[in-house]
Each structure stands twice: as C-alpha cells, then as structure tokens.
Write the structure tokens for this entry.
Amino acid sequence: MSEKVLQLENIHKIFPGVKALDGVSFDLEKGEVHILLGENGAGKSTLMKILAGVYQANEGKVLVKGEEVTFTNTKQAQDKHIAIIYQEFNLIPNLTVAQNIFLGREPRKKSGLVDKAKLKQKAKEILAFLEADISVDMLVDELGVAQQQLVEVAKALSIDAEILIMDEPTATLSEKEIETLFKTIANLQKNGVSIIYISHRLQEIHQIGTRVTVIRDGCTIGTKIAVDTKLDDLITMMVGREISKERIRGANTALSKECLRVRHINSGRKLQDISIDIKQGEIVGFAGLVGSGRTELANAIFGIDKMEGGEVFLFGKRMKKLSPVECIKAGMGFIPENRKEDGLALTLPIRENVVQASLKLLFRNGYINSAIEKEKARQYCQNLKVNTKDIERWVVNLSGGNQQKVVLAKWLCTHSKFLVFDEPTRGIDVGAKEEIHNLITDLAKSGVGIMMISSDLPEVLTLSDRIYVMREGKIVKELPGEGTTQEAVIGFAAGKEVDDEQ
C-alpha cells in the first residue's frame, strides 16, 4: 500500500474580488513525482504557496504524514521538511554557492561565528549527492541557469526536504540541461523524496511523472496515472475544450513590401556576418540551440546591443542611428524573452503598462489624458482576453499568460508594423498559447511582419512561413515552414549533416 506524505483537502482561498481556489484536493505519495497541470491562473501557484506557508487557506485541511498542520510562515513549512523552488530563483548573486545553500542557517562555532569550514564541507556533500560539478566557492553570479537551479535543489536538501515543489523547472533550460535535471529528480526519488512538479511542457509528463492532477478555475478536475493517460485528454481537462494541433499557416504567397532587411551584421563571436529579410505579412521563425545567437540578433536589430558592423533597414529606410527609440519611431516593436525584467513594470497597474510604449503617440501635447489611457487599457485587455476585471490591478499579481498578454497589448497599442516575438509562449499554458498563436497569425494577415524566436520547435513549424536556423552566431540554413521536419531543424542547429530534401 502506498504511503501518503501529503494531503490537501477541500482547500479554498479568496483574495479581494477573486476566488483563487474553490475546494481543491490533492495528495502526494512517498517517492513519487506528482505533476500539477493547469492553465495560467488556474490556481496552481496559490495552492503551492499555501503548502509552503506563504498564504493561508480560508478553508480546508493540510495533512503532512497524517498530521493536520497550519503554516503561517515559510519557516514552519521548512520545519516539516517542505521546500519550494520557484521559477524565478531566490539566490543572492554576490554570495558563494555554499553561502546561498545555508543562507540564514549557517553552522556556527561556540563563539557564535560562522563555521566556514563546516559550511563548505556540508555544501560539498550535498552537491556530491546531486552529482553537481560546482565549486562551493564560486559566486552564484558566475553560474549558468542550470547550475543555479542545482544550487536551489541543494538549498532544499539542506533542510532535509522530504517534499519538494518544483515550479516550471525546465522553462529556461536546454535539452542537455533538462536531461541532467531529470537524472537529479530520479536520484531524489530513489532516496524517498516526494516531488510536486508544475510544468507546461506536456511532453515531460510521460518522461518523469508518476501521477498527474489537473486543476481548472480553482477546482480539481481529476487525477490520472501519467503513463496511462493521453496528452490530448489532459489538454481537454485543462482547458475544457480540444486544442487544434494542425499547422496554422498555409503557404504564404501574398508577400508584399519589405519590412526588415539586415546585411552583414557582426558582433564578435555572438553574431557573424548575418543577412536576413522579412516581408510585411510574413512570419519568419528563428530556431537554434541555447546560445546560438537568436536573442542577440534581435537585440542588435532593435538597437539594444551595439553592432561591430553591418546595416539594418526598416521599411526600406537605413537606420543610421540604431536605438530602441528610433526603431519604435520607425514602426518596430519588441516582445522580449524575459517579460518580467524587460517587458513590464510589475508594480504599476495594467493601465499604465498598456500605454507605456505609446505615450508620444497618444498624448502629443505631453500631458497624459487618463480617460484615453483607461479606454486603451480596457480595449486591449478585452481584445486579448486578459483575465482581469480591474485595469488598476498591478501586473505582478497576474498569471504568466496574462502578463504576456499585457506585454502584447503594450506593443499593439503602438500600431507597430514589424514585431519581434522572443519566446512568445514560454511558461504559458496550452490555452493561452493557442490564443497567442492565433493573435500572431492575425497580425500577419493584417500585414504586420513577424520575427519569431522560439525554442519550441512545434511552435516554429506551426506558425512560420520561413525558418532561419542559427548556430554559433551564424545563419546556417534557411528552410520553408511548410513541409520541414523537427529532425531537419535540429540537425542543422546541432551541426549534423541532414538531407536538404527533408
């Protein structure tokens, strides 16, 4: 008989004006990976924050190993050996790996001073258990994303975590880094650690999942055995409808005027002699492995990063002074990869975020008209189906999918005729992803040129008219969107010889 280490029974959580959880039930068995699925805003994060002691439920029970508990802070949850690793890491960049692992719980000498030797030794032991080749003396700021994630896992193990919550752990990892993470998870399972795993990458369910629970609109929809459940069935449970998997774009034959022309861009080893073209009404996908130079190319075109050589033409006009301000004036918009850091003002309301990039366009006399500001915010929130009734709500309080829609609203408000989408659906549920895909294709139909960077190959193949494949800062292949296989794209991206006819 399986041993239940955690039971959440009939959990309710109400925020002002919002019922986030409406009787959710969930349980976790010893040594399993229980995947928690749901659209953005379904209540997954709220449920986990109740378990971690960040929030308190208005109603319901939490039982750890059969004992009913109430957590009013995170320390109480940690004392019950519950740890959470958030999608945005909680590490201090200018401290060492060892210092981060035991932050606030440092081993001390009788004098009260930190026992640095013991600190390092204990950190080494945990990292050795994780088979992580990381020096405990390195500053976290010197580590890559995958290494930082392992430090977060090490932090969790330093409190002897028996229940580990992982929120979107693979969202920013390469395929090789994901493989390493999955080995770590398997190792934790063997040692009796139980894992709650939140992800929007449905292919991971059959790779590592024991069971999967779906919640929708704050309610439990059902729990299934992972290996016995079809992904299509889980998607229907998540969104309450079937999601189309057909290629959205047909052959695009109605290409018109030039939108973007780039000639011989160079930027050290990051970008090497790149020339590309994008027409109005065309969606051009950019594929490649992590570090291939796709984001660097977008940053160079938008004037964020300096170029060492080359030319950029927007709508036939050579950009003599390349900067974000000049690009926006010329009709270009940029939806960045990191929406929270680069795309939004999180502690400002939706209303202010929507008009942020179009202030000069909307208010030519230099004075903000609050009536126009509210009208635009409501208009775009309604058109993009942003899940909120209050445009005064701070963006930080929105789900990831709704935050992405606010970024889109900001650039749509500028009436840009050329848009760069860098990872447009990363960390977004399948329902919101379909909405954004439809929006991108509608924009292209209206004559907007689209440069789309994505690590999601099905997304690239579904939407793109053409695909540029990048490797080590170079364009290594141009492929048609229709008829191209994932194997062909991966082959060119990885430097393998692939039959051009694929």
